[in-house]
Amino acid sequence: MITTTKTINRLFLMFFFVLVSLVAFAQSKSDKMYDAFANKDGVSSFTFSKNMIDAIDINLGDDGDEKQVTGDLHQVRFMSYNPEKGSLTGAQFCDKAIGYLPKSRYHKFVDDEPGNDAEIWLMGGKKKFTECHVFVHNENASGLQFVVSFYGDFTVSDIDKLKKSGKGFSED
Q1: Gap between the Cα atoms of 128 and 126, Å rounded
Q2: What is the average pLDDT across 152-157?
Q3: DSSP 103
């Protein structure tokens, strides 16, 4: 009887640790980036949940230049940083934010576009991605910096559209 109780306790503990591990891994590694800047001076952020995305069309642009967010989106997060109100420069903010993305899980998308003011970091395989983070740099050192994160299932062909959409969030 004592051996059976010990076995049941061990099984319960193993089940508990597996469950806790699954919950911990269910969160995105990029949550650390957003959490680190939450409630900091100069930072504003918001999130579109899956229900909000499904309820509204996210079209960016006007006068026939609309850019529609495509792919199977689960969540869109946005963060802006104003160096005039915070303690970091715009470049320091972007470097620090990118630093929260574990390099073992995320990789930088190499864009051939000259004069690019957006940097893209992806999580996923060679053709399928689950996260796309667009860091929009401002040439003006005291200008606003932006991060737009897309969560869902994307393919390589969606990356350019997500980049344009991310930049669209940061305009006017």
Answers
A1: 6
A2: 75
A3: T
Read off the pLDDT of residues 62-81 as tens digits, 9 standing for 90 and up. Answer: 445 444 444 577 888 999 99
Distance of CA 126 to the CA centre of its chain: 18
DSSP-assigned letter for residue 129? E
pLDDT tens per residue across span 144-153? 999 999 898 8
Task: Decide: 26 and 151 in contact? Cβ < 8 Å.
Answer: no
Report which secondary-structure segment, H or E, holds 122. strand 118-124
Q: Give the predicted TM-score (pTM) of the model.
A: 0.69
Structure tokens at 42: 């100069």
| pLDDT surpasses 50 at 25 | no
In contact, 131 and 92? CB cutoff 8 Å: no
Domain boundaries, the chain: 27-170
Query: 18-43: string of b/e by CB count within 10 Å (b at 16+)?
Result: eeeeeeeeeebebeebbeebeeeebb
Listed residue (64, 168, 62, 172) closest to 118, CA to CA: 168
Task: Output phi, psi for 45, to 5 deg.
Answer: -150, 160
